[in-house]
Structures are given as C-alpha cells and as structure tokens.
Amino acid sequence: GRKVLIVYAHQEPRSFNGSMKRIAVEELSKQGCSVTVSDLYAMQFEPRATRNDVVGCLHNSEEFNYGVETWEAYKRGSLSNDVIEEQKKVEEADLLIFQFPLYWFSMPAIMKGWMDRVLVQGFAHEFPNCYDSGLLKNKLAMFSFTTGGSKKMYAKGSINGDIRYLLWPMQHGIMHFCGVKVLAPHICFAPEYVSEEKRKEMLIAWAQRLKTLWKEEPINCSPEWYFQ
Amino acid sequence: GRKVLIVYAHQEPRSFNGSMKRIAVEELSKQGCSVTVSDLYAMQFEPRATRNDVVGCLHNSEEFNYGVETWEAYKRGSLSNDVIEEQKKVEEADLLIFQFPLYWFSMPAIMKGWMDRVLVQGFAHEFPNCYDSGLLKNKLAMFSFTTGGSKKMYAKGSINGDIRYLLWPMQHGIMHFCGVKVLAPHICFAPEYVSEEKRKEMLIAWAQRLKTLWKEEPINCSPEWYFQ
C-alpha cells in the first residue's frame, strides 16, 4: 500500500478545507493507502525558524545562521523533536498533499513554517542535489487549495493574473527544488461564495480525482508551464 | 518628516540582514524621517492565524472563519493587541520596508504571518477597494532581501528562473492588492558566499540608494513587469 502525508492547515474541522481533507483520508484509505495527517493548527505547529530548532550547542554561537545550524543539527541528529517527527512522515510518504486556503497568493504562515523548518539542507536537498536530483526525488506532491476569488478573477489577463503565476514559488521553488514531482494542483475556486449544491459538486469532483490519482503524470515543472 | 516602518525578520543582529536594517534606520533617520522597526523574531511575533486574534465573542462560533471573524473584529475594535499595534504602525507609515532573507522563494513564515494577521479586510482592503483603490493607497513598499543563490542562478532561463517570478505573490498579490505602490526591490545576492569586501560594497550601495529613495518612481506592478 502506498503512503500519503496530508499537511493540512485550517482552523475549523467543519470548513470546506476540512471536508476536502476528510474526503482525501477516506478515499485514499479505501484504496488501501496508509494516510497520515499533519493537522498544523491542531498541533499548534511552530512556524518560526529559531534557535530552538537545534537541541544543545550551536555550531557557531557567535553568529546564528539558521540554514547552517539546522544543516549541522540534522547531520548529528539534534534537530528539535517536532521537526524530526515531520521529517519521518515525509521520508515514509510516496505522496504529499498540501490542503489549505490560499492566503495572500500563497500558503498560510503556519504551512510556510512547516516548509521552512522541515525541509532542511541535508534532509531535503544538499547542493548539488537539488531540483531533479533533490533528496526527496521519487516522491509526489500536490497542492490542493481554496481561493477567495473566482476562477474568472484568476484568468490570464484579469486582475489577479493567471493562477499559475502564484504556483511557481510553491511548486517549483519548494517541491521541485527538493526533487519532488508535482501533480497538477487541485483548486476549488471561491467555495464560500457558491451554492451548497456547487460545493457538493466540488467535493465529489475531488473524490473522483483521487480515484485515478496514481495514474496521473506529473506536470512539466518548468517556466513554460507557469508563464506561457 | 516622512514615516518609515521597517518590518524585519532575522534572528541574528550581527547578520548581513541585521546590517541592512541598521543602515536603513541610520540613513533614513539622518534624512529626518521617523523610523519604526518591527523586529519580528525579537518580538516573538505570532505567525499563526487563530481564534486568539479575536478578543471576546465570535461573530459565528459554530464555524470559525478567520477572514470573516477578523473583518468583524476590526470593525468593532476587538482584534488582539499585537495586531492592532502593527496596524497603527502601518497606518502612520509613508513607506514600508520588508527586510528578510529569502526562504523558499518567499518570505520567512514569521513575516508571512505578519501579512496574514495585520492586513485584514476592513483595514487594508475591502471589496471593491483593492488593487489601485486598496485602503493603503498613498503608501509605498519595498522588499529588501538576501538570497542564497547567485544573481546568475536567478536569471531568466537559468534553473531558479527570473527572480521577478517569485516577486509576484509578494509585490502584486499582497502590496498592490492593498493599494500600496511598490518600489523596485533591493536584492543582495548570496552575501554568505562573497568576500568581505563585496559585502561592504553591498551595504554601501544600500545606503546610497536610500539617499535618493524618495525620488524613485514605483514600478508598474502588472504581469508585464514580472513575466516578460
């Protein structure tokens, strides 16, 4: 059975994002996958990258450098426990699903903190092992999110610009950088502003997509996909 | 005298980012500006968008909706104190400078949390008052940041893509959305990997730019600037 990690960032279980997460757990479990959820708000996950992420002495206590310190701490096994726990989940997973509401053309800070703190050098990448040779190669990722704006507002030439523009930092800058292959994003536009019926249709479409997820080909994660 | 708010996200005062922040305070103060610094790590600024941001009762306690709750709380003056303090600083400022190291093609989570929590509906935008009619119009913003990668690695056609691609969510999706005019970013490429002399040159160039900052024209914050 395949292993899936869902990194989930919504405060309210009864929210549309909460339903999306529940459906993914149910549908993937039904397929025989083993599914783990990191429910970031429920965990009160720490988003701040600080000295507390290193247990014990620093490599250089004269001038704190987060990137260097966490790299060194990873190598000697002295990252903080919450980070190590997340790294174990990532290590085991074949697929990472990020489920969140879009905040300011990006992910909520609590999820950005997960990226900042979990994907440390040595674990997820280590020059020259980045992009296609990143240390998390052979894994898949998908960004599944809701927007406030409608699909029309995120079309090319409209005020918010093509939705793909804002996927570049997340899909290419983070996942591709670590070697992870990216499945097409799953975007639910403006669930807050549509009818109950339309919301149900969106949830059904998500369950449907998950049924054939493992047959999907990753996107070609290059500038052409995003900007042409 | 003009008013400047520097939102600063680095853990180490002795860092290159710390020097950039100090130089901005000195140079702008010398010009007669009144400068305020939000030193996010020193403040242990909370990046998580939670129910704690609303003091007292919720508008709808059945299903927590962060956007709705903070909008309502803003209108009745019941946002949490730390958010109100930051909003006051923004309100007074003519110019916002964001000083940070680039983390994953974006800002560190602690700064993303500042955006998520401070720029609430009602305060920074309120449909249809967004983009050119955003509620923070008549203010300027500048993103000043350091990278790990070299300038060459962030050129068009190279592996990281044009550095402008990753500026879209921050400059257009956040600042422009709130009506803020965006000055050209100030980017120090790979200060960790250059000579001490080159680092000094970068600091001098920053001080120089600040001398004529108020004469600069904002960029034309449209897709053409980013993707052509």
UniProtKB/TrEMBL annotation, chains A, B:
Its EC number is 1.10.5.1. Keywords: Cytoplasm, FAD, Flavoprotein, Metal-binding, Oxidoreductase, Phosphoprotein, Zinc. GO terms for molecular function: dihydronicotinamide riboside quinone reductase activity; metal ion binding; NAD(P)H dehydrogenase (quinone) activity. The keyword Thylakoid does not apply. This is Ribosyldihydronicotinamide dehydrogenase [quinone]. One of its GO terms (cellular component) is cytosol. It catalyses: 1-(beta-D-ribofuranosyl)-1,4-dihydronicotinamide + a quinone + H(+) = beta-nicotinamide D-riboside + a quinol. Its main location: cytoplasm. It is found in: Cytoplasm. Residues 3-210 form the Flavodoxin-like fold domain. It is an enzyme of class 1 (oxidoreductase). The enzyme apparently serves as a quinone reductase in connection with conjugation reactions of hydroquinones involved in detoxification pathways as well as in biosynthetic processes such as the vitamin K-dependent gamma-carboxylation of glutamate residues in prothrombin synthesis. SUPFAM superfamilies: Flavoproteins.
